[in-house]
Amino acid sequence: MKSLWNDKDAKKYGKSLLAKRVYTSRLLGANPNLVLHGGGNTSVKIKKKDFYGISKEYLYVKGSGCDLATINEADFSACDMQDLLSLSLMEGLSDTNMVSQSRVSMLDPNSLTPSIEAIVHAVIPSKYVDHTHADSILSLTNCPNGRKNISDLFGDSVIIVPYVMPGFDLAKEVRKQIQKSKLNEVEGMILMNHGIFTFDDDHRSSYEKMIRLVSRAERFIKKKIAKKKLPVSKLQGISPNDLSQLRKVVSEWRGHPVLASLDNDIKSTEFACLKNIKSISTRGPLTPDHVIRTKRTPAIIGSNIVDSIDKYVDDYTKYFNRHASSNLTMLDPAPRWAILPNKGVVYFGKNDKEISIIRDIVRHTIKTIKQTELAFGSWKALSASKLFDIEYWELEQAKLKSKDTHGLPHEGKVAIVTGSAAGIGFACAESLLNDGATVIGLDLNPDIISQMNKIKGNGVIVNLTNEAKIKSVIDDIVRSYGGIDILVSNAGIFTAGAYIDKMDQSNWEKSMAVNLTSHQMLLKHSIPFLKEGLNSSIVLVGSRNVMAPGAGASSYSCAKAGLTQLCRVAALELAPHGVRCNIIHPDAVFDTKLWTPEALSRSAERYGLTIDEYKTRNLMKTEIKSADVGNMVSVMSGNVFGKTTGSQISLDGGNDRVI
């Protein structure tokens, strides 16, 4: 591991003690082998006058839940040092009182809640304190001879702290260890099964001590491993159908829809192929902090997917009952990740962010487990009882609850929207995303990539008249997200107007291929996954022309009429599987690329109307915008229309011909 210190960069941050603290905190956060997703914490002790002008020493410590990689000065909370030291001298202190008294001690009551390790930082007398969960340090400690590994490598240059609960208990233990140590003769402090602290009165020295100690651990492990390899079996494939079924049963136990992402990282797939995978993967996480993200163990998926998840749930329930006190309520028992032996690793989360966090944690877990097995013969995590204490610790649970978002109707759902590079399709994608769905936009237009990026969706370029391409894209989507819950089939073209007897045959064939057959092929390859979806919904985008056609538009009107009939048949076929299929008929949606200012002007002039009059020429005298269609489609895909199928919904402001 190399130091990232750069003199020029350091000067940019400024000369204040807090600015220096921000700089080295970010250096730690920039290395995922040290810190993952809000993990680790840093502090600096600063003398400052309080509101009354009295000079006091304050501990500026990372605010709970902040990310060291992006931390700013405002993310540090200043606590009165004397108050924190007084707390450390108490015989006992509840978690609730620890947090409340830490907040009472704050210089600014509007600051973030201080890290749960604030008292630990306070009892370490050095000005700067750094704490990380370095992978290599955890590899040294998380094995049967962990304490000996530390002693063999570091000798008396580090303080070894036995594992105790983070927070007040850890502060008491650290204080005790410091009192019997000569701090000027040690470089850091290693917490068994937890991580490492370094400290110094100089910010660069504290940071570089961390890099130096972790680097020694990395070299030690590398030398131990040499050219050793763990025995593996041959990698097998996993079908999209199995993934879809796995996602469904996990979602049911979780209590709401989740995404299921198959990891195709080579190291993850190699891990799934280890011959002793069932044993080494279920011993526990790298650090107790991870248990709130990943639970204690992954699910191991056998030949029967449903039975495998049911067994995981049963085991988790027994784990809870074995360790819980009477005042605790069991969390949902669904796994956060799963191993399919010889096939791969799958992560479960309600959105891309949760999936990303779990993936990063698991990948580091996999790396560390493998190197520990090779270097020291066995991976050994904390006991189930100690991990349970963290999983159900009120302070750790508060971190997750404070970030939870409730009320988004499509959270955890996977939605496909075709023809979404612009216009109605784009509006549908945006509305579904705003309502919590993970959206994949499909379009022939290369702009689909950048358009979906704008709204944090995922764009795929595909010709929807090519059946093989459709099947391939659908399979890829399921491998990436675990299934399909919402399908908005919107792609279409408005073929040039022509009377039947004067129409070029290619006009008719093109309209049928794009406006009807492409939808049929999309349904054909999506339906198997929609049947495994969660409250699955199909919304087809039709046209007012179905009920009120115009002369010279037979190729378009007939294709849309066929699409409507396809919707009705699909509703009949899919109702027994709980899949709904409805169609929306918009009219006069003028804020699309099809309606250029020139085209609008010509059409308005033809009817003897102003442009504004033309855009509102419906019974309600209101303009229909693509966002109106998008919002209606999102509602139709949710619980409001949960008992509606086979219906045709007009969105036209009222059309006298239709009515």
List the topology elements:
Layout: H1 7-12, H2 17-29, E1 41-49, E2 55-62, E3 76-80, H3 81-88, H4 95-104, H5 118-123, E4 128-132, H6 135-141, H7 146-154, E5 158-161, H8 168-179, E6 188-191, E7 195-200, H9 203-225, H10 240-254, E8 259-263, H11 266-272, H12 277-280, H13 291-294, E9 299-300, H14 305-323, E10 337-340, E11 344-349, H15 352-376, H16 384-391, H17 394-403, E12 414-418, H18 423-434, E13 438-443, H19 448-454, E14 458-461, H20 467-481, E15 486-489, H21 505-530, E16 537-541, H22 554-574, E17 580-586, H23 597-606, H24 611-615, H25 626-636, E18 648-651
Parallel strand pairs: 5-6, 9-10, 12-13, 12-15, 13-14, 15-16, 16-17, 17-18
Antiparallel strand pairs: 1-2, 1-4, 2-3, 4-7, 6-7, 8-11, 10-11
Helix pairs in contact: 6-9, 6-15, 9-15, 10-14, 10-20, 18-25, 20-21, 21-22
Describe the overall structure.
- With about 650 residues, this protein is an alpha/beta fold.
- About 45% of the residues lie in helices and about 15% in strands.
- The chain is elongated and about 100 Å long.
- The mean pLDDT is about 95.
Q: What is the overall number of helices?
A: 25
Biggest sheet details: 7 strands, mixed
Indicate the percent of residues in helices. 40-55%
The separation of the N and C termini measures 72 Å
Low-pLDDT regions: none
Q: Quickly name the level 1 CATH class of the largest domain.
A: Alpha Beta
Gross morphology is elongated
| Arithmetic mean pLDDT | 94
Rg from C-alpha positions?
Answer: 30 Å
User: How many separate domains make up the residues?
Assistant: 4
Name the strands of the widest sheet in spatial order.
Answer: 3-2-1-4-7-6-5
The fourth-level CATH homologous superfamily of the largest domain is: Class II aldolase/adducin N-terminal domain
Strand-residue proportion: 5-15%
Total number of beta strands: 18
